[in-house]
Amino acid sequence: MHFEFYTTIMDLRLKALTKSIWVFHISAGSCNNCDIEILDCLTPRFDLERFGIQLVGSVRHADALLITGAMNRKSVPRMKKIYEQAPKPCVVIAVGQCALSRHMFRDSYNVCEPLDKILPVDLYIPGCPPRPEAMIDGIVKLVNKIKGVKK
Amino acid sequence: MSHKIIVPIGPYHPLQEEPEFFQLYCEGEKVVDIDIIIGYNHRGIEQLSEGKHYDQVAFLVERICGICSSSHPYAYVLAVEDLFGGEQKVVPERALYIRTIVDELQRIHSHLLWLGLAGHFIGYNTVWMWAWKYREPVLDMFEMVTGNRNNYAMFKVGGVRRDIREEDGPILKKMLDELVPALDLFRGAVMDDPVIQARLKGVGILTRQQAIDWCVVGPTARASGINIDVRRDEPYGAYNRVDWNVVVEKEGDIFAKTVARILEMYESVRIIRQCLDKIPKGEIDAQLRDVPAGEGIGRVEAPRGECFHYIKSDGTNRPVRHKIRAPSFMNVASNKVGAVGGSISDATITLAAVDPCYCCTERVAVINKADNQKVMNGWDLIKLSQEKTEKLKKELKA
Amino acid sequence: MEISDKIKKRFAGRAYDWQENSNRRAYFSVKKEDIFEVAGYMFKDLGLRFSTASGTDLPEGLEILYHFSNDPKGEFYSVRVMIEDKKNPQIDSLAPIFPGAEWIEREIWEMLGIKFINHPNLKRLLLADDWPEGEYPLRKKE
């Protein structure tokens, strides 16, 4: 009974998220290609703002975390701290091949485990780098999935 | 247009103890010392290279930096071709022209990207949006020529992997014709604006002697009067077959660096047009096999400066040692003299003026030297910089 | 090449094992005790630009190559120094001559373990603070 009540509250909060998602971007050791393509989504050609999606400067306001990069040893503790500071519920989106599986850097001495062994990932957007269209497609799929939770 | 969008700059937490990329120690309004901490992107690529064979390494080095995505593979294949006697001896003519076209398109896209970020840092968000809007056709040109907007996978040892079709030539030229009015727009907007001049002139000066002592490269060096450019000094590709100029400014301040980059874009358009006219028919790949033993060095002029690769080979199909030195490694270190002495409202634009990788400028902190307390983070610094511009605008209107 | 002739004349006997396979590249060796003087001469007197330095772990020792560029002519000069003592490798730092060497020497130190004497700031550059002491990623595994 207690558990169902809690899940319902979480569902309602997640549903409220889908009106306007504020995202915070973290790079855990990326080559910047994914980061530039994320910023590209804000430019007039793709214009994420019309979907209500905004990049914010402080993790305190974030509904979703966009994580790029190959889990560099220096960056991972910082990434974990940021995740703890983000208000829950918070959706974690892994952008780019490096965030998915560490890509060709998986054998490196300076790279840790893959992202989904460190944080709970809700959406994977593959690509090196993923095109802005792919990112928008991924986010729309996530939004629909959240909306469809109470079917 | 009004913008609420901000470039994300690290978490703000008053009690946070973590090291930032740039720690600026301040006394009041002035920056008195700077500590630069890097390593957040270090992925051990030099060591990974030793375990891969020469074809695979070309894909690996592409992902060193996403913005200079063609400079690193180009320098790498030049280093390996050095072992065969040099690029000009072994690579077919047509491939040289294609390599040059890709390299120059990359320069245009990188400088437009920088222009947008610099505009954002000083509060001209319109410049940001317009620079990136006009960057999109350049990415379309990349997609036409290489098949991808970023990470082109064009370079292989002995040539290039894809050809430019006959029908693409006129379309590319038309897109370049449409790009030039945009460049004129930026030149007018930036170089003739009194507020921008007041903001950037005399700020963040790197003198000629400092530039020599800190061994800086690229537009950072050329803005301080040092006339170096690998494309002219040690020509590679088709650079010695077309006419173009090296852009050198003397003042060494941020305005000089901005002007140098804008004028370089015009030269890039000139080079691409000539390459499209002169490109001969023929093979694009020399089909090189069996890398000989020896040592090879390859250098290219990336948008940020000289990119250096060194390969030591023992005759097998894997490198014994692969040394990579990106241009920003030299330029970012020079902020020790470039940013110190200035005010904190000029800090972000000074740090960004050497054009480091975007990730590096993400994390900045200002620390009060007297009590070692962190007083503001990167987001606050950008706001401070933007407020200074607003103040200047009002003063100059009065 | 003109610069090679000047170096050969100035450091006769101390600059040896010259390899000049092309008209734009020259490699030569000096003993590690001489590198400070040779680098100072190349930077100050000959006006060459210091491009970078690369270190390699070879069976006979740790080799550092210092790369200098003669930009007006497009020539590249690489100075080879071999440090035989792998247990306690040391060499003079070039940072007192030109500060551009600071970061490069820090990187070689943390990757290969070579100590640079008189370096103003020899601390970690790229590796995390919790990286184990005494472990150098670019040393070959035995």
Task: Return the average pLDDT of chain C rounded to an integer.
Answer: 90
Helix share bin of chain B: 40-55%
Q: Under the CATH scheme, which architecture of the domain at 45-193 and 236-242 and 275-326 in chain B would be assigned?
A: Orthogonal Bundle
Order of helices and strands of chain C: HEEHEEEEHE
Q: Please count the helical segments of chain C.
A: 3
State the end-to-end CA separation of chain B: 24 Å
* Low-confidence regions of chain B: 1-19
For the record, the CATH architecture of the domain at 2-87 in chain C stands as 2-Layer Sandwich
Order of SSEs of chain B, N→C? EEHHHHHHEEHHHHHHEEEHHHEEH
The biggest beta sheet of chain B is recorded as: 4 strands, mixed
Query: How many β-strands of chain B, per DSSP?
Result: 9
User: What portion of the residues of chain B fall into strands of 2 or more residues?
Assistant: 5-15%
CATH classification, class level of the domain at 2-87 in chain C: Alpha Beta
CATH class category name of the domain at 45-193 and 236-242 and 275-326 in chain B: Mainly Alpha
Structural class per helix/strand content of chain B? alpha+beta
Q: How confident is the prediction overall: mean pLDDT of chain B? A: 85
List the SSEs and their pairings.
The complex is a heterotrimer of chains A (151), B (398) and C (142).
Chain A: H1 2-17, E1 22-27, H2 33-40, E2 54-55, E3 64-68, H3 75-85, E4 91-95, H4 97-101, E5 123-125, H5 132-147
Parallel strand pairs in A: 1-2, 1-3, 3-4, 4-5
Chain B: E1 22-27, E2 30-36, H1 45-49, H2 54-62, H3 71-84, H4 87-90, H5 93-121, H6 125-146, E3 155-156, E4 159-160, H7 168-191, H8 194-200, H9 208-213, H10 219-222, H11 230-233, H12 254-278, E5 294-302, E6 305-313, E7 321-325, H13 327-333, H14 335-338, H15 347-353, E8 364-368, E9 373-377, H16 378-397
Parallel strand pairs in B: 1-8
Antiparallel strand pairs in B: 1-2, 3-4, 5-6, 6-7, 8-9
Helix pairs in contact in B: 2-3, 5-6, 5-12, 5-15, 6-7, 7-12, 8-16
Chain C: H1 2-10, E1 16-19, E2 25-29, H2 35-45, E3 49-58, E4 61-70, E5 75-83, E6 90-92, H3 102-112, E7 115-117
Parallel strand pairs in C: 2-5, 6-7
Antiparallel strand pairs in C: 1-2, 3-4, 4-5
